[in-house]
Amino acid sequence: xxxxxxxxxxxxxxxxxxxxxxxxxxxxxxxxxxxxxxxxxxxxxxxxxxxxxxxxxxxxxxxxxxxxxxxxxxxxxxxxxxxxxxxxxxxxxxxxxxxxxxxxxxxxxxxxxxxxxxxxxxxxxxxxxxxxxxxxxxxxxxxxxxxxxxxxxxxxxxxxxxxxxxxxxxxxxxxxxxxxxxxxxxxxxxxxxxxxxxxxxxxxxxxxxxxxxxxxxxxxxxxxxxxxxxxxxxxxxxxxxxxxxxxxxxxxxxxxxxxxxxxxxxxxxxxxxxxxxxxxxxxxxxxxxxxxxxxxxxxxxxxxxxxxxxxxxxxxxxxxxxxxxxxxxxxxxxxxxxxxxxxxxxxxxx
Length: 350
Known about the structure:
aldose 1-epimerase activity, mainly beta, isomerase, carbohydrate binding
């Protein structure tokens, strides 16, 4: 196991550090203390070629805006909050509106724009980085001082584990996720249309025209949201389903998971032989097929385009603050928020 860290640049005299984690099999992950952003995950294909299977900007300055949220930790609340407000304990809180009138992914300065405190660690069978940040009362409109810790760990089973931990001195909404875009073809040499996605989910959330859950919880049976047996993404993207059309001809939808830490999310690219298995204790995963990728900055050496990557955002249900029948995303004062998502990389030689 190996840990290397190097300074890439500075922001307001604060160093931006890249941490590179390498296991004994040559799998490698690079992440930054800025936004906990993941810039590289190098894994082999079926022929033993190690390539990057996540999207990353070519120039660090692009992360200062990072409109697609490439590779970053998202918080305090992942997803959209309708009308940028919520009521809690009889008080109405107004959040920063950064997408029309709505609040998206933590606001203007969400966790993806934070320079986190970071410390690497190395053990016999794992290597990692522990990030920490104190989100102050009133930040982006949220109540409470929240101490947040995010730990990235790479082990010798070619598993990458993200552990989230937080505690607040006031009740506050909180659900964290990671917004990495995966492309298992390697170095983004193909888009994700031939990737196959399988999810153990019987129900999904339809969206309104602003991509916010309507409140309905719908059965996936007989729809393009039935991924229990797996679907090639091109089949979804080529469809005329109104929900698929609504978000730019793809997915940007929450799927409620039937099971946890049970190979509940599987992404496969048969040509490269790479398979990604995602396991989590979160209630849902938001699947986003890169339908709205902006094309201003180059990504992985090429101009970005639709369907260049897919996000698998494990989290609470979006806009849960407005839907009492959704599982609550409120972190009570003094209670501990704890969540783990594991990304296991496997090979198929079909």
